[in-house]
Amino acid sequence: MPREIDEAWIDEAIERYRRLDVLRAEFDKAVAGHVVSVHSPDDSIEVLVTAAGDITDVHIRGSLQHRTATELAREVQAVVTTAAEAARWAREKLHDEVFGAFRSLGDR
Questions:
Q1: In a domain, 2, yes or no
Q2: What is the C-alpha separation between 40 and 38, in angstroms, rounded?
Q3: CATH code: domain of residue 70
Q4: Cβ atoms within 10 A of the Cβ of 101, count?
Q5: In the chain, how many domains are there?
Q6: Would you say residue 107 lies in a domain?
Q7: Contact at 8 Å (CB) between 60 and 45?
Q8: Distances (CA, A) of 42 to 2, 11, 16, 34, 67
Q9: Helix/strand/coil (H/E/C) assignment for every residue in the chain
Q10: CB within 10 Å: which end of the chain, N or C, has fewer?
Q11: What is the pTM of this model?
Q12: How far apart are CA 81 and CA 76, in angstroms?
């Protein structure tokens, strides 16, 4: 028995694929352009990170003369870890904003 082809479903699938491609491009652009600022626990280091996880700038406040290398390394590690978490959080929020209303083919 031959299978019926649901041309309307195929047309909708193609249109949804195109829409998804547009949304993916919007998401990629938003992720690259969205910058989050995070600070070390002692507030001496600020890191700017995109939602894509790229560190775009680092600011060190105050003098480094009063710290040991171990103390500075601990602050840098903490702020970089926080930056990675902030980037992940920002990506998730942007994903929800861009793809939130997008429904699957099974939801038609």
A1: no
A2: 7
A3: 3.30.1310.10
A4: 8
A5: 1
A6: no
A7: yes
A8: 71, 57, 48, 25, 12
A9: CCCCCCHHHHHHHHHHHHHHHHHHHHHHHHHHHCEEEEECCCCCEEEEEECCCCEEEEEECCCCCCCCHHHHHHHHHHHHHHHHHHHHHHHHHHHHHHHCCCCCHHHC
A10: N
A11: 0.76
A12: 9
How far apart, in whole angstroms, are the C-alpha atoms of residue 36 and residue 79? 12
- pLDDT tens string for the chain (108 positions)? 566 778 888 898 899 899 999 999 999 999 999 999 999 999 999 999 999 999 999 999 988 888 899 999 999 999 999 999 999 999 999 998 888 877 654 554
Structure tokens at 54: 């790229």
- Is position 77 within any domain? yes
Q: Specify the residue for token string 């047309």.
A: 11
CA distance 28 to 50: 11
* Residue corresponding to tokens 């904003």: 97
Does residue 1 sit within a domain? no
* Domain region containing 25: 7-100
